[in-house]
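Annotated sample (chain length 175).
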Amino acid sequence: MKSVALLITLLGLVMASGSLAAPVDKPVRKDRSTLPITIKSNEMSADNNGKTAIFSGKVVAKQGDITIFSDKLIVNYAEKNGEVDKVEATGNVRIVQQNRTGIASQAVYDSHDGRITLTGTPNPKVMQGSDSVSGKVITYYVDDDRSTVTGGGDPNARVEAVINPPARKGSAGGR
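Output written by the structure step:
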């Protein structure tokens, strides 16, 4: 379960990583490793020999200010040390942290590469306020604190970013 905390933390970081092109105040990142994790689902099955834990049916995983919603959450553990190898959230994936929301049909965290990848149809999207970015693949590189949004190798696919100007204080009608 400690591994699921890492997934929740990392998926939350994709929201805070500056993946939107608009400059925003970076939220203070919290050390979530000491916070309790609550995972609710209709079912849970664990296979110690297979090194997996599967949560299915209206999955809600919450730690601190990050909540992940999905139809299924699969945690794969490494054979020799029991550390998280890969975590996959599938089906109606929604990740919420403060005023940021990421949506995708699949989110995968690969601990070896330190990478979280959002994919699926429709295209994954990250929104903050009225700003958003979407593409076929949204990838967050944990160790480098950077993210990319691509067309997933499709020459016809495009990345779309909607960036609204900041509201001005004391201005009438934006003038």
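Annotation: The chain has one domain: 2-162.
Annotation: Residues 1-32 have pLDDT under 50 and may be disordered.
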